[in-house]
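Changelog note: in this version the structure field was regenerated for every chain. One regenerated record is shown below for reference.
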Amino acid sequence: QVQLVESGGGLVQPGGSLRLSCAASGFTLRNYPIAWFRQAPGKEREGLACVGSGASNTYYSDSVQGRFTISRDNAKNTVYLQMNSLKSEDTAAYYCALKGPPIRLGACSVSAYEYDYWGQGTQVTVSS
């Protein structure tokens, strides 16, 4: 059974950090592109970062470039999103997603329509 489970969300003060995890079962993450998205109430889903299969090319949206880092632990079959210098506008539900075949080795995007499997989300609230 294919499953993605996010964790690590919570309440953090502006300027703080959080690390989100996306644990996978049913497939091997290193073989597929993985991305992180978020959605705030009343707003469209926003693609944040992705990592490709194999050699692990990464991509970041302008809104998180330099603050967020996506990484993958192949031994744990888990992808992470390290979030630093958090701002109130980062408040949202965060989702990880996986793109199934066919894939292009090493490539990834943050277009939601390309992703086939989604986690249930984890809430991040940035507030003082």
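Spot check on this record: The longest strand covers residues 18-25. The chain has a mean pLDDT of 95.
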